[in-house]
Amino acid sequence: MNEAMLTAPVALATERRVFAPIRHHSPACAFMVRAAIRQTRPEMVLIEAPSDLEGFVPLLCDAGTIPPVAIVALTLPNAEGTDPGEAEMTYIPFARHSPEFVAIREARAVGARVRFIDLPCASRHDRDPDAGPPVAEQAFGTADFIQAMTRKLALRDGDEVWDHLFETRLGQDDWRGFFADTYAYCAALRATTSVETIAGDDTLAREAAMRWHLRQAGEACVVIVAGGFHVPALIDEAAPATRPVATKLASYLVRYSEDQLDSRSGYGAGLRFARWYDRLWELADAAQGPPDWRQATLEAGLGFAAASAATGRRVGVSQIVELVSIASGLARLKGREAVLARDLIDAARTALVKAEAGTADPYTETMAAWLTGHRLGDVPAAAGQPPLIADARARARHARIDLGDSLRKTRSLDIRRNAAHRNASRFLHQMTLIDTGFAQLREGPDFIAGHRNGLLHEEWLVAWTPLVEARLIAHSGHSATVPRAALHQLEAQRLQLAEDGQGNDLAALTRLVLIGLRAGLARYLAPLVDALKLAIAASPDLGGLAALIGRLSGAAQPDDPLYDPYAPDLVGVCVLAFNQAITLITNLAEAPDMALSQRIDDLRTLDAMLRGPYGERFDHRRFLAALDDLLANRACLPRLAGAVMALLVRAGHQPPTTLATLLRGTLTGVGISPTERAQALEGMIGTAPMLLWLNGEILTAANAALAALDETTFLSALPALRRGFTHLAPHETDRLAEALGEMHGVSAGQLLADETADLALLARAAAADRALGERLAADGLSHWEGT
Amino acid sequence: MTTDAPSVLRQPAEVLYAAELAALAADPGPRPPGWRLTPRAVRAFVVGDPARGITTKFVGDDGLVDRCIVSLMGRQGLMLVGEPGTAKSLLSELLAAAISGTSSLVVQGSAGIIEDHLRYGWNYALLLNLGPKPEALVPSPVMSAMREGRIVRLEEITRCAPEVQDVLISLMSEKTIAIPELGPHREERASPGFNIIATANLLDRGVHDMSSALKRRFNFETVLPIANPAHERDLVARQVAERMAAEPDAATPAPDVIDLIVTVFRDLRTGRLADGATVASPKAVMSTAEAVNVTHAALLDATYLDRGPVSGRHLARQLRGVVFKDDPDDARKLKAYIDIVARDRAGRSSVWKDFFREAQAISRE
Ligand SMILES: Nc1ncnc2c1ncn2[C@@H]1O[C@H](COP(=O)(O)OP(=O)(O)OP(=O)(O)O)[C@@H](O)[C@H]1O
Ligand SMILES: [Mg+2]
């Protein structure tokens, strides 16, 4: 696009061609489109919608169709045997106030033919659905022209600028002037969007297809309803036109909801706040002219108050009055009478919040949610069976489940050894996630909590009842396949967590990731994992981070039952958690004594990562530096110091002598008491017991520390020491016994003969052998010695 | 600091920007009763309008300014809350200067404030001489603002005792001050244009809670730290330049020096690095204003002691001295930040390296 296009006078409306440059879901545009069609009575109305969905026109005109509704189109990848879960879904949503919807019905009213002129859905499935709104839509917020307008008009953002310039004209009758202005606006924002950006998605291909349809219209008199961003390219007669190739696809008309309309992504991403614009449309439609803006504002105030009361925050009448007056004041400050969505949201903040608030507060959120709405549309029976049901049936049959009746049947799945069974299990887990009541797991390993992981089989009860179909229909508005629906459910659970104030709960988020892995959704888990990453970055909880690392690093090992090569980089998540944990290590000195054992275990978990199969991905240097720091803190208790020092020695970062010195109680020149020495030993055993047999100097110092204890102290330290030893593998226990034996001149066999578990006791017995004997003798109890 | 220093150092906004205010006063268009400027001109004065030569004074949140202006047009008072150093006082001063032509009707909240400071007092010599006559009455800034239809500013309102806050409640609802000494029905009624801008720092220790009756009479606006790093860098650079205007020997700080100090302050203020990793956030106030102070001090250090341009090491010295002087816990958090974050960045940038080396040397002392 170039300057010339901006300045050259364009003929938007000629005798045979009337261009209506619109924005999706704009009631003002819808009103003008209707007026244009009414007045010009064209033979044909061309609409920017995928041409392979044109068959839906009659259904959209059916009286039983009540927006919000959406056409959902499924384009299956062509390769045989690919998972239908990977089908690309396109939703083409319609609100009552969508210009396209209004155009379709008005065309019918004046007897004009409707043509959908956009690239067929089927040719668009290489578009990345996660890439956000199409360029043609994003430009409304990001183009340089918009930035300049925002500054010039002293408004907040592109949405507000659009509302300010165009939605305020809702219900006026000069549609020619209106479209001349939307055209100028869109041409300017296109001219200030870089050529590379425009070429960044399929915008250009779509426009070539639309031009082709336009040429096909020949000499007929047509109205063209298309996104304003495209119109400059459609008017350009010289530009090449490409005949689009249509392929087959599956598509359905489904119910949609106002909040889904708001989600800003997908095909007709446009204005937000569906309920608000719907109401404005309704008021304008009833008035056959401008809506009663004051009435709309008042209703918003009242509706907001009711919504707020429902969340437990009452809003008094005087506050509603203040809200409405602030909203009107803001509108007037910006030079208009019409109160717009942004004003209402701002006014809620000003009038209601009575405390310090961050960027978000409950009142603005409630107002935004109210403006968005959640009403569901309706479709006539003729719309047919939603794709989700067909998909679930196909998958059930594939899993060899009989759908002929609704009887309960058992199904046993050998999930470890049989790939088909594993896939069936994943399907059943998905159906469980979306709460269809179809399948129920009666027996089997629980990989989420980590119980009975060794079990090889899952025992299921399955039954295909009418209730299952009813549940699937409820999900079909947002998903066309079972994996997608399950995924949607996971996402809903995550949002619920956020709503309950647990959006940063590491354990809960980790659980959702594991559930997703178990249900075979690995390749779609990136958003969930991203949420987990955010929570990690904000986490002050070392224990939670360590637990997460332990759990997810497990699932990243190829021999783990939850391992999936398509999963997001779980080790990367662990690395992130590891780095976050490092920042918390410094605070460990302040950890209450009671929590210390747990914290020492956490350190061991972190250290284990450095030695694991992915060790080189973790930052050794920062970990050790943090430990150094912790050790330097005077508040660091002996038990923690022992644990930390042991890790440093094991990593070769500190010489063994320092640990021996610590155990002997002469570190930093301050003598520590015998009790504290045992605590240092305890700490050391908690993180790196192997040092005892790997290094003679340390073993000697440890022995001395133990020998110096009186009986009561020893007994009270014993459980912790034992706990430390339980982390040892059997061969490690042997090594230790050997080392001890060597030191005391007894064989390892002798030491281990009676009671291997009580190694600590043995160690102590060996060390204090003579002392004990002497005491027994002194007490006249030496005859006990033999027993 | 000498006693007359403040008047030299800091002129009120209406004096400092007299020319801008005069230009804006010429704007046509309706004004709310008692206002010197149109609401749009008030906005332009505060957030700036380069096309008309109006400087930007409050940075970062134009929507907040809109809401404040609209609140002040109504019956509710305006309560600015937020962390220290987020320019609450500055914003209140700018709004008062633009709306009323003066920002000097101020009551500074403290434990010593009594009811009379919000109503009126007496000139006792005159009182003894004349008896209770209007000439002997000494109006408070609040009463003056009522008479003249102007904005009065109440700074740090939560430091006032609850009884004093109660006076404010009746004042806000009646919009009159009774003067029984002058006669049974004598009272001062607020002229149009009167309103109150209060500021409060809710995190301040030892403050009095506001009663809900008082809260109801104010619209609250939270002034947040500047969200956009580029805006904050610009502001710090500009304010440092203003302060250095008096020091001809000082060289303008290089952009990477400003970037370093702003980055350090933002990291520690939010407890979060740009890449999402977290750091322990100190208790010390890490405000933009404090960043300006540190940079200013570093600049003096560099200019007069090192006789060279300011660099990372000067910032490191001042940061330690100014921000972390008292609290050992904060000092530890700074050390952790330096050892982990600054060390990492030192490998990639020479200012950071300079900063890191000096900071580490200091922390070993
Ligand atoms: N957003 C901003 N725009 C302009 N200046 C700012 C901004 N944020 C901070 N400053 C600078 O910080 C200085 C401190 O502001 P001010 O004293 O008004 O803060 P405050 O919020 O009243 O603090 P306190 O709570 O300590 O009273 C301002 O004079 C200004 O130099
Ligand atoms: Mg202040």
Textual characterization of the structure:
The complex is a heterodimer of chains A (787) and B (365). Chain A contains 37 helices and 10 strands. Chain A folds into 5 domains: 2-282, no CATH class; 292-372; 385-482, no CATH class; 518-751; 756-787. The radius of gyration of chain A is 35 Å and the shape is elongated. The longest helix of chain A has 18 residues, at 293-310. Chain A has 787 residues and is an alpha/beta fold. Chain B has 365 residues and is α/β, with parallel strands linked by helices. Chain B folds into 2 domains: 13-222, P-loop containing nucleotide triphosphate hydrolases (Rossmann fold); 229-363. Chain B contains 16 helices and 9 strands. Chain B has helices at residues 5-9, 13-16, 18-25, 39-47, 62-73, 88-100, 124-130, 141-148, 162-174, 212-216, 229-244, 255-270, 288-306, 312-323, 328-346, 350-364, and strands at residues 77-81, 106-108, 120-122, 137-139, 151-155, 176-178, 187-189, 195-200, 218-222. Chain B is elongated. Residues 1-8 of chain B have low confidence and may be disordered. The site of adenosine-5'-triphosphate has 17 residues of chain B, from α6, α11 and α13.
